[in-house]
């Protein structure tokens, strides 16, 4: 996928997140983020938008903390989130392709630029939180099933990319807690795309390779959109074969702090 495609998805996902949050009401609970209400979701996502935009706008070279969003509520926090999303969009759209800036894991060869990194990362950040907002909107009795609408609106290629980013990016870092006392193989398979990953688990961070050349102890499988949500611990894994303990390990240890 090209950076322009991620920017287009980021635009749509941010607008959809705000619309779902408005429909839910800012005091609605977010079932997929225990302890959060919609106002917390908006405050968090907007703050992340500002944090990401600052790296691109300032070409900032080193890590810095995410500042808390404002203590607003109701229409004010909704307006602030929409402004944060527009600010991120305009910053990314106006940035030169050759900027230099810090990124929190190396950009893969097909996304060598920090601009591409941040556009891609914010598209996935916003897509997952759009789902969270829709669970808040639809959690009342008689509400719809958010996962169905989410996955039908999400391009398969984008979901596959998000799985790849999660596995090759986040879980290749030293802070990944997905570890086992002895060597194990965990497979992840998108059943509606030519996309398979094998994770070598041990006392070290997972080592991810493409393909399924070796037998795995456990396979997590499903359509890419559903698998994307499952690996971010938003819904159950559609299909688990083999040792269910590794699926449980993923559920318990894979959260991104």
Note the main sheet. 5 strands, mixed
Q: What value does the Rg take, in angstroms?
A: 18 Å
Which bin fits the share of residues in helices? 40-55%
Unreliably modeled segments? none
SSE sequence, one letter per element: HHHHHHEEEEHEH
Structural class: alpha+beta
What general outline do the C-alpha atoms trace? Answer: globular
Strand content: 5-15%
* Number of DSSP E strands: 5
Summarize the structure.
By secondary structure, the chain is an alpha+beta fold. Helices cover 50% and strands 11% of the residues.
Blueprint of the fold:
Blueprint: H1 3-24, H2 38-58, H3 74-94, H4 114-138, H5 146-153, H6 156-169, E1 184-190, E2 195-201, E3 207-210, E4 218-222, H7 224-231, E5 239-242, H8 244-253
Parallel strand pairs: 1-4
Antiparallel strand pairs: 1-2, 2-3, 4-5
How would you portray this structure in words?
This protein has 257 residues and is of the alpha+beta class. It has eight helices and five strands. The protein has helices at residues 3-24, 38-58, 74-94, 114-138, 146-153, 156-169, 224-231, 244-253; strands at 184-190, 195-201, 207-210, 218-222, 239-242. Strands 3-2-1-4-5 form a five-stranded mixed sheet. A hairpin with a 5-residue loop joins strand 2 and strand 3. Helix 1 runs parallel beside helix 4 (114-138), helix 2 runs parallel beside helix 3 (74-94) and helix 5 (146-153) packs across helix 7 (224-231). It is globular, with a radius of gyration of 18 Å. The mean pLDDT is 94.
